[in-house]
Amino acid sequence: MVKTNQHSEKEVQQLFSRIAPQYDSLNDVISLGLQKTWRQKLWRRLSIRDDFQCLDLCCGTGDLTIQAAQQLGPQGLVVGLDFNQEMLNIAQQKIQQAAVSVPVKLQYADVMSLPFAEQSFDIITIGFGLRNVPDAERVLQESYRVLKPGGQFACLEMSQPSTAVIKIFWQLYLKIFPRLAQICGGNYCDYQYLQTTTQSFLSAPQLLQLLQTVGFQHCNYTQLTWGAAALHLGRK
């Protein structure tokens, strides 16, 4: 096991319980609304059929989960999985408000030990969650296990720009936005966590290599907004 998040699972669990009520609004403010565009790009890169079975890992308040349901027909199925019940409660409310026609199931579980049989899903997504787990490689291994042959994996995550000028600006912004979150009603220390995990997580090329090591094929990544985020794709 190579730890990709030095914070304990208990710390991360408590943090997300605290920020759950403000999670959506503060993320929109901090990302300047870009996260919505990033998610849309994820779905445009996937090949989707109406009857697909989709799994959204670290689903949080359910944005990607809801978008998955909107891509499918009534014969499809979407499962959103997270280890924080407060986030899942908000996701459930949003799913009911969205009134999607596809069955959506929310599951409380550990992303590093998925409670599903091998070859269960056609698509697995994870948005802004991989850097929060202790062992990203284990999550990728579990994702590979429960994907069907030919299944698609998509990871949307914060990243580090490679261009020197943009990198300096991005690092400065990471230092500023915990204070911005505090002004908007969040806790400074909680959003400082986002700063530290973003800076210490794998670079986009390193994550690509990890996907390949696990066994994913046809792997590639796209840098978004000059490298502030990255979209990684792979197939089983």
Structure overview:
It is built from 9 helices and 7 strands; from the N terminus they run αααβαβαββαβαααββ. By secondary structure, the protein is an alpha/beta fold. Strands 3-2-1-4-5-7-6 form a 7-stranded mixed beta sheet, with helices on both faces. Strand 2, helix 5 and strand 3 form a beta-alpha-beta unit. The chain starts with 8 loop residues before the first helix and ends with a strand. The mean pLDDT is 90.
Shape: globular
| Secondary-structure content class | alpha/beta
Number of E strands: 7
State the helix count. 9
Oligomer: single chain
Q: Report the mean per-residue pLDDT as an integer.
A: 90
Order of helices and strands: HHHEHEHEEHEHHHEE
What fraction, in percent, of the residue positions are helical? 40-55%
What is the terminal-to-terminal distance? 22 Å
**What is the strand content?**
15-25%
Task: Characterize the biggest β-sheet.
Answer: 7 strands, mixed
- List low-pLDDT spans: none
Tell me the strand order in the biggest sheet: 3-2-1-4-5-7-6
Radius of gyration: 17 Å
